[in-house]
Amino acid sequence: MSVLVVGISHNSAPVALLERVALEESAVPKLVEEVAACDHVSEATVISTCNRVEIYTDVDRFHGSVEALSRILVDRAGESVEAMLPHLYVHYDDGAISHLFQVAAGMDSMALGEAQILGQAREALRIGQELGTVGPALNSLFQEALRVGKRTRAETDIDQVAPSLVSRALEESREAVGSIEGKYVVILGAGAMAGLATATASRGGAGHLAIVNRSRERAERLAAAYDGTPVPLSGLADEISRADVLITCTGSAGTVVGVEAVAAARATTPERPLVVIDVALPHDVAPEVADLPGVTLIGLSQLAESLEGGDAGAEVQAVRRILGEEVTAFLAARRASSVTPTVVALRSMATSVVDAEMTRLESRLPELGATERDEIRHAVRRVADKLLHEPTVRVKELANEQGAVSYAAALAELFALDPEAVDAVTRPFGVPEEEDR
Question: Looking at residue 430, what is its pLDDT?
Fold first, then answer.
């Protein structure tokens, strides 16, 4: 199994580009089928959300596959290859497995630890299964990723980290504007993090909530849930002029709120207190905004204690530890399973040799009784098993050591195993191995 992921997300691309690549729900199966039809691709599915489009494949060749999958996303965006490629990312084999586990755990989400991504990964698996484009390789990988995602949330409170960041920022804003109760709050963005920010501000008793977003439909949906007002991106300056608190969380790859724009919006009331909370990664707001009169800027760097220390930091570290354990275990099991066909073929060859020798012995010594023949057969098989036991145990152990040597291939070469015999017993990773008899 060689897993290849080609994707684009809020971490790699500006919102405008993401929106051009984003898929309607009904369009996802068509994209999966298009990917599955590419040369060198044996399995395929797609995780599609408002913040990411990731193509997951099982391939037999890296270079031709990555070019084909990248071209599919480039064509969807309607951009030139030169303009699009810097915003795409590629993960291959071990890196692809680690990436999916992080995605399932919510560690790659705008809202750290958000649980919605688990359902989206499950949907990707379902679509691939229904289309017949997901086989043993991706099926076992996604099943494990879903299990890991559930484990991180069962054993930690990672899904509470993002809300705690917003709450912490609002607590720090008290010194400048007081309690958020009754205040004019503007939320820039309409994704998962914006939803958390809106919910937190609403629970705090905000007097007015304005949801500013490039996509009016998404702004309207979020605003409706909290009795807020949807505002197009073109109305941001007017909203800043009214705001007591501005919370930005667009996930854009570049600066969205510049110092000139904020200064112009506040030209008539330059001393009026304004708290700007930037919880985007990378940041939405130009750092120079903090130098404007009356403006207090609170960014993720100032919330470092929440990220690296205290309860929230402990949860992040706990999830990273779990992911490290799970990725290591998955890769070890996968490497061990890769030698199974060779081991089975070797044992099969040994059995054939024993049977052939017993047939020859019986023809030369026809006077042997049934009891004697059975005893001899068992004795020879025990000898063969003992001779093969140590090599087969060691080859499974050595398969987990990193390096260029393929011990399974060496074993096959030393014992002159028929490649077709090895292929005939190849089983996909994730299918239980029969116990050695």
Answer: 45
| Pair 318, 414: CB distance under 8 Å | no
Question: Model's pTM, two decimal places?
Answer: 0.66
22-50 burial: b if 16+ Cβ within 10 Å, else e: bbeeeebbebbebbbebebbbbbbbbbbb
Among candidate residues 4, 5, 7, 14, the one with its CA nearest the CA of residue 88: 7
- CA count, 13 A, side-chain hemisphere, 199: 11
Q: Which two tokens stand for residue 151?
A: 């484990």
Beta carbons of 236 and 205 less than 8 angstroms apart: no
pLDDT of residue 393: 74
Would you call 249 a catalytic residue per the annotation? no
> From the candidates 50, 127, 194, 344, which is the catalytic residue?
50
Contacts 24+ apart (CB under 8 A), 265-274: 265/236, 265/237, 265/238, 265/240, 265/241, 266/240, 266/241, 266/292, 266/294, 266/295, 268/241, 269/241, 270/294, 273/176, 273/177, 273/244, 274/176, 274/177, 274/240, 274/243, 274/244, 274/245, 274/246
- Residues 395-435 have pLDDT tens digits of 666 666 654 346 666 666 666 666 665 554 444 444 444 33
Residue whose token pair is 């304004």: 274
Closest Cα to residue 257, out of 229, 231, 278?
A: 278
**pLDDT tens digits, residue range 159-179?**
877 777 788 889 889 999 999
Name 299's bridge partners: 278
Answer whether 152's CB lies under 8 Å from 105's CB: yes
d(CA 306, CA 162): 10
